[in-house]
């Protein structure tokens, strides 16, 4: 079983790596999808503890704006900018998380939303600091210290994002087997037991919250570098809910949200072309169906098919 | 032999509205001692346990753990001082493996819990898990998710997790309730063997007098929030007044 | 300066009035069904659109303009009665069986978000994306001069309307049989069921009531604030801020919080415009930092 998973993962990775070479004009799109997937992984991590964040655009936006702020000085060092953007996301999550992890369920979801919208409002109004609704340019044109052509930079950025995603994936895989990572899923099941083992459930959640902020910040930093521009819209609640949808569509685990991001992108394109007036209705129906029937998202489908066929074989 | 009692309650008071749950209760549990608490439902026994874990704060009096007052501390902090709790309804993680439960508890007690790089599986945790699973005869169930194991096993797992913390004192709320009478003796024998082997003190609330008679060093009789009698099982169970009020 | 302060306070009270209507609906739904309806704001928006539509229809049919006032109330009730049971029974009912509670909460959060998306597009399809004129009801009753500044009587009347609604709600919950059943279900649905209460029916009723209240808030507020796409989402977050500040399931507390937030927002608009849109959230965050369950919230602890 595990060997199968490893093979599947490796082939998926190989396909991803080759994609921008086969379809070079879509590289930008691929990068944006990967960035959204990374943020989705962050949201998905919190979902494991039973927490839905409707405000992760905050950390995505922090990552974006960190890149925008530092790009004028470090425009040739894209790799550094992306790393700093991720770190900024983690730092913001650390600060917000101190307050946020006291809450569960509905409060957690909506408080995250409220804080991200406060950030949105502040950025919108502070023209001198953040460029207001116009946003800021992101003059990044090199990855490792020297300027590159636009096409080359775009390609390299994609691979940096892919590489980062793989690194994070490996880290998360290991993290889930540490006591704190194992405990994350247990918080939803039985928080009392965790407290009575002498462990602060809030601290377990804080650790996960910071990691999720890191991931969202990474996604935002990559996206900002790809687009070349940031705007307060990155903080808007629609961005946050997109990440939630991606996480739900794709399911748990490290790969799921990326699948979710791909599916979401397809739905987006399809809807724009065929159903421009009813895009949200379609999305709403899809979410409702998934939440009703396929609790573990698309990534969980193979598992449920497997167990269903096992049941049939036994019967 | 250490003279400081592992747990000392002194003139504890707690009322809920008009009900006196705990009224001027004083008792001490010596190191390695097993104390049973008996009494009718609603007499305040579970409330007393909950005060010892920090869930309720007494309105008067003091509780000391190895000489140190624990009033006002949170349950998490009191646990770290060496008090473990097993619940009447086992508090488990339904989708997780049985052996992982014990590994997790073990990790909670030792250092390095928070490192994002140290795995749950380690030689020490494996050893602890194997030992406790063997003590409680749960070895065959080790790989199963907690929701799939029988009720008696669930209670044992709850207790095993508490023991994996290597506490000085363990508090048990009706450890044999929900367990069939044939299994009760087995459960308590295993439990007490581990307690004695590790010199862990225990306070347990119990309704089964047979269990009390066999396994308790001393018995505290709870009537209307007060400790009515505190003595050996033989004396307590033979006392006609106790029989009238409780049995 | 003082006149401006009075004026801002009055504005705050009037916006707090409609905010109360929406927020109390959300709070009721949460109290009885234990569900935070992310689509609650959609009912508000639909109420607002319908109000504008009714105004246009009244004009087209040549009916007396003053009929708009009863029409607003009737429209809100209609929105509640038509959409409430449909959304609750058809789209959400399956989720009430899910255990444990935390998983159910999250699934319902996602499900109601899906409903929000559907209603949002539904609004666009039904009402189109062109702006509607909704200010008709605002000017019909004249205005009053307070400390030199004019306020429309319509807006001033919103305050007693909200107050009356509060009193009616309290009487309903405390004195009528149905109301007491609702309270019983909010306290403990299982016990209520064993005592013969038709829990499912109470749930649908509460959801409908909540939707109607939100629609009423939208219909009444739209005369002053206008109708556009996107007001549904704004009001959902805002009414959540009110409910969170008050404490979940508190009726009178919601009124206090609505006033607090309405007035704070109003003062900010006048005196500290940079904070105006975020003032409600700052209040909410301040309150929650000090008292995580809200000003009047009750702590429900598990007995172990």
Question: How would you characterize this protein structure?
Answer:
The complex is a heterotrimer of chains A (315), B (247) and C (304). Chain A is mainly alpha-helical and 315 residues long. Chain A is 76% helix and 1% strand. Chain A has a two-stranded antiparallel ribbon with strand order 1-2. In chain A, helix 7 packs antiparallel against helix 10. Chain B has 247 residues and is of the alpha/beta class. The longest helix of chain B has 18 residues. The two termini of chain B are 36 Å apart. The relative contact order of chain B is 0.18. The mean pLDDT of chain B is 89. With 304 residues, chain C is mostly helical. Helices cover 74% and strands 3% of the residues of chain C. A two-stranded antiparallel ribbon of chain C has the order 1-2. In chain C, helix 1 crosses helix 10, helix 3 packs across helix 9 and helix 6 crosses helix 7. The N and C termini of chain C lie far apart (57 Å). The model of chain C has no long low-confidence stretch (mean pLDDT 86). Chains A and B meet through helix 7, helix 8 and helix 9 of A and helix 2 and helix 3 of B.
Topology:
The complex is a heterotrimer of chains A (315), B (247) and C (304).
Chain A: H1 2-22, H2 27-48, H3 57-74, H4 78-100, H5 105-125, H6 127-130, E1 136-137, H7 150-175, H8 179-189, H9 191-195, H10 201-227, E2 229-230, H11 237-250, H12 256-274, H13 279-293, H14 301-314
Antiparallel strand pairs in A: 1-2
Chain B: E1 7-16, E2 19-29, E3 34-39, H1 45-52, E4 60-65, E5 68-69, H2 75-80, E6 83-86, H3 98-109, H4 123-135, H5 151-164, E7 169-173, H6 181-198, E8 201-205, H7 209-215, E9 218-223, E10 226-231, H8 233-238, H9 240-245
Parallel strand pairs in B: 3-8, 3-9, 6-7, 7-8
Antiparallel strand pairs in B: 1-2, 1-4, 4-5, 9-10
Helix pairs in contact in B: 3-4, 3-5, 4-5
Chain C: H1 2-33, H2 40-61, H3 68-92, H4 101-127, H5 136-139, E1 143-146, E2 149-152, H6 153-175, H7 177-187, H8 189-194, H9 199-225, H10 231-246, H11 251-271, H12 279-290
Antiparallel strand pairs in C: 1-2
Helix pairs in contact in C: 1-6, 1-9, 1-10, 1-11, 2-3, 2-4, 2-9, 2-10, 3-9, 6-7, 7-9, 10-11, 10-12, 11-12
């Amino acid at each position: 079983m595990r060997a199968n998973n490893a093979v599947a993962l490796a082939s998926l990775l190989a396909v991803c790596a080759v994609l921008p070479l086969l379809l070079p004009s879509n590289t930008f799109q691929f990068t944006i999808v990967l960035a959204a997937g990374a943020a989705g992984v962050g949201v998905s991590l919190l979902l494991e503890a039973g927490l839905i964040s409707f405000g992760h655009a905050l950390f995505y936006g922090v990552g974006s704006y960190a890149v925008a702020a530092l790009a004028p000085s470090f425009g040739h060092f894209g790799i550094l900018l992306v790393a700093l953007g991720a770190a900024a996301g983690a730092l913001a999550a650390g600060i917000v998380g101190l307050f946020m992890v006291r809450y569960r369920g509905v409060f957690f979801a909506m408080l995250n939303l409220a804080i991200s919208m406060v950030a949105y409002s502040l950025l919108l109004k502070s023209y001198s600091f953040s460029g207001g609704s116009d946003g800021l340019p992101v003059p990044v044109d090199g990855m490792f210290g020297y300027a590159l052509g636009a096409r080359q930079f775009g390609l390299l950025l994609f691979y940096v994002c892919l590489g980062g995603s793989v690194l994070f994936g490996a880290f998360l895989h290991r993290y889930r087997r540490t006591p704190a990572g194992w405990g994350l899923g247990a918080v939803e099941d039985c928080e009392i037991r965790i407290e009575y083992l002498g462990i602060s459930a809030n601290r377990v959640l804080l650790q996960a919250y910071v990691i999720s902020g890191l991931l969202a910040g990474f996604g935002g930093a990559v996206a900002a570098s790809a687009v070349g521009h940031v705007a307060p819209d990155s903080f808007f609640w629609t961005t946050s809910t997109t990440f939630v949808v991606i996480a739900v569509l794709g399911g748990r685990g490290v790969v799921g949200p990326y699948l979710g991001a791909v599916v979401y992108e397809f739905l987006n394109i399809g809807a724009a072309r065929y159903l421009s007036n009813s895009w949200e209705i379609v999305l709403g129906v899809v979410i409702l169906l998934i939440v009703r029937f396929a609790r573990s998202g698309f990534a969980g489908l193979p598992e449920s098919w497997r167990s269903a066929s096992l049941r049939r074989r036994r019967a | 032999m250490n003279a400081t009692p592992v747990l000392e309650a002194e003139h504890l008071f707690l009322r809920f509205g008009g009900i006196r749950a705990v009224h001027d209760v004083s008792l001490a549990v010596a190191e390695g001692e097993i104390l049973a608490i008996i009494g009718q439902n609603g007499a305040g026994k579970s409330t007393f346990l909950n005060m010892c874990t920090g869930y309720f704060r007494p309105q008067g009096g003091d509780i000391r753990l190895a000489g140190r007052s624990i009033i006002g501390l949170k349950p998490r902090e009191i646990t770290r001082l060496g008090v473990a709790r097993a619940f009447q309804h086992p508090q488990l993680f339904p989708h997780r493996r049985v052996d992982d439960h014990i590994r997790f508890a073990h990790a909670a007690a030792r250092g390095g819990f928070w490192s994002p790089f140290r795995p749950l599986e380690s030689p020490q945790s494996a050893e602890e898990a194997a030992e406790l699973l063997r003590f409680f005869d749960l070895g065959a169930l080790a790989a199963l998710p907690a929701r799939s194991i029988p009720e008696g096993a669930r209670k044992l797992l709850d207790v095993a997790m508490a023991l994996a913390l290597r506490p000085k004192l363990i508090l048990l709320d009706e450890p044999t309730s929900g367990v069939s009478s044939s299994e009760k003796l087995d459960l308590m024998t295993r439990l007490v063997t581990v307690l004695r082997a590790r010199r862990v003190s225990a306070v347990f609330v119990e309704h089964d007098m047979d269990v009390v008679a066999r396994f308790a060093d001393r018995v505290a009789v709870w009537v209307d929030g007060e400790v009515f009698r505190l003595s050996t099982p033989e004396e307590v169970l033979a006392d006609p007044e106790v029989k009238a009020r409780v049995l | 300066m003082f006149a401006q302060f009075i004026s801002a306070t009055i504005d705050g009270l009037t916006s707090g009035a409609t905010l109360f209507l929406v927020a109390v609906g959300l709070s009721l739904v949460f109290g009885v069904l234990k569900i935070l309806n992310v689509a609650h704001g959609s009912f508000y928006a639909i109420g607002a659109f319908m109000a504008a539509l009714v105004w246009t229809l009244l004009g087209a049919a040549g009916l007396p303009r003053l009929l708009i006032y009863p029409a607003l109330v009737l429209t809100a009730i209609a929105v509640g009665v038509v959409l409430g049971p449909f959304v609750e029974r058809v789209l959400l009912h399956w989720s009430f069986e899910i255990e444990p509670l935390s998983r159910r909460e999250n699934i319902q959060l996602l499900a109601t978000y899906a409903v929000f998306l559907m209603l949002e597009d539904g609004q666009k399809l039904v009402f189109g994306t062109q702006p509607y004129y909704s200010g008709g009801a605002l000017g019909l009753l004249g205005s009053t001069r307070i400390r030199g500044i004019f306020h429309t009587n319509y807006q001033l009347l919103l305050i007693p309307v909200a107050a009356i609604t509060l009193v009616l709600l309290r009487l309903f919950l405390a004195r009528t049989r149905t109301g007491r059943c609702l309270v019983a279900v909010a306290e403990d649905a299982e016990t209520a069921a064993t005592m013969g209460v038709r829990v499912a029916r109470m749930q649908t009723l509460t959801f409908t009531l909540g939707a109607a209240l939100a629609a009423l808030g939208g219909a009444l507020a739209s005369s002053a604030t206008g109708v556009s796409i996107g007001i549904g989402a704004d009001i959902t977050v805002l009414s959540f801020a009110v409910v969170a500040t008050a404490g979940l399931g508190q009726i009178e507390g919601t009124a206090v919080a609505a006033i607090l937030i309405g007035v704070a927002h109003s003062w900010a608009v006048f005196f500290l415009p940079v904070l105006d849109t975020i003032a409600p959230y700052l209040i909410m965050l301040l309150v929650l930092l000090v008292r995580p369950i809200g000003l009047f919230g009750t702590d429900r602890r598990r007995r172990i």
